[in-house]
Design goal:
By secondary structure, this protein is an alpha/beta fold. It has four helices and eleven strands; from the N terminus they run E-E-H-E-E-E-H-E-H-E-H-E-E-E-E. 27% of the residues are buried.
Length: 179
């Protein structure tokens, strides 16, 4: 953990109907001093949406050669490289060579980001999974961040439902492929 990092605890009830994943997560997430609240919120949402055995937060911002999240099998082999934000084509190219699956969760202007990647050289670009987290939904979680934050997250038919303190925020989870 980087010097000056703040540890946040997230209690998340996940009901991902689209993937048949139902879990109660108790996460402790170190927030890097340079990390914005929306980025932290997007990182936690990506973790909840991607939850599976072997999923872990990495050193991320502290180590630019690592993704925000990764999935490793029981032998330590990298299975999935999961980015948060707007990584450039060079980074995605390197990620696609390192892992059989690459996914990106962006919480900024997704359409502009997707256009910026078009025509770039990315290894196995047709397999790249691009997901747009709704800004309002990310903002709602970022606004409620405390050292201990509890929320429910449901995904059903491509629609995300985020419930914080009894208030439900709903938005589509947009997905995109380059090829």
């Amino acid at each position: 953990m980087a010097s000056g990092a703040v540890v946040h605890r997230f209690l998340v009830s996940v009901s991902n109907v689209d993937r048949h994943v139902y879990e109660a997560l108790d996460l402790r997430v170190a927030r890097h001093p340079s990390e914005t609240e929306p980025y932290l919120a997007a990182r936690v949402l990506a973790y909840a949406l991607e939850f599976q055995p072997g999923l872990a937060f990495t050193r991320g911002l502290s180590d630019p050669d690592q993704p925000a999240l990764e999935v490793r099998d029981a032998t330590g082999r990298l299975e999935a490289w999961i980015e948060v934000g707007t990584p450039d084509a060079v980074r995605l190219h390197r990620a696609a060579k390192a892992a059989p699956r690459v996914a990106v969760y962006t919480h900024t202007d997704a359409a502009r980001y997707w256009v910026s990647l078009a025509g770039e050289r990315i290894h196995r670009e047709e397999a790249l999974e691009l997901c747009a987290l709704d800004r309002g939904l990310v903002g709602a979680l970022a606004a409620s961040l405390e050292r201990r934050t509890a929320f429910d997250l449901s995904l059903n038919d491509g629609t995300l439902y985020l419930t914080i303190d009894g208030v439900v925020h709903a938005a589509a989870l947009e997905t995109h492929r380059l090829a």
